[in-house]
Amino acid sequence: MSRINVEIFIGIIIVLLASGMILVYGMNEQARMEEYKVSQAASAIEAGAAIFDNNCKGCHGIQGEGIPGLCPPLNDKYFFTSRLKEVGWTGTMEDYIVSTVAGGRLISTRPEQFPGGGKPAMPSWSERFGGPLRDDQIRDLAAFIMNWESTAPERETVAPVGGPPVGSDITQELPEGDPANGEALATSKGCAGCHVTTTNGPAWAASAGQPGIGERAATRITQDDYTGSAEDGDQYLFESIVSPNAYVVPGFQIQMPAGFDKSLTAQETADLIAYMLTIK
Questions:
Q1: Domains of the chain
Q2: Which of 20, 39, 165, 272 is 20 to 30 A removed from 111 (C-alpha atoms)?
């Protein structure tokens, strides 16, 4: 066999091997793409979980269970099966979530049940509308919420039991508070998410040379910029719960959800205050 024939033969073998490798690679491409999509979806859900924990749980609950009298549940079968029909949305659920988070909501669609966190009922979160989140972050948040769809339970959306709402009269006499129950409420109602585990709100613990909220409360009302009507530390804490916009701590925006005057009982309010007073 001549040298030319050998080179031709080797060239044919190389071409056949390369073609075979390309064929095998192509046959596995779909599986690789599916694996990539799963990996990307998992990353989006993980990122969305962190965003929800930092920004959303204070109103919608730690596990998306909602807060009665304040904001509706998202980890809820009704949300995924009937919400779009209720509001007349013709797009996908994920796009509905993205749109609502990005633009916020001026008024609640169910004000008799969920008045929302203030005016507007839900703030705009997109940077395009003055919020803190990028479009990709909002998509990640939507992916996290969509992750609840297959396991979302049926939830009751009624006012909490245990007594009538406490209202906004901070001069009323509250029952004796239970600090242990107040600590549990601070977690379940989302308070700790802003005031303990993150810096979204003024820290309850002692920091920057300031004592904890249990001692600091009495000094707030003596400040020249105080705009509320509390006359002592206990009333200041009461006011900060039921009328959070009466006084906004300097350096913080109006983020504290309104509506706790309608969703908390007098006993629950007393328990929360008792817990805060233990934080020196």
A1: 1-159 (1.10.760.10), 179-277 (1.10.760.10)
A2: 272
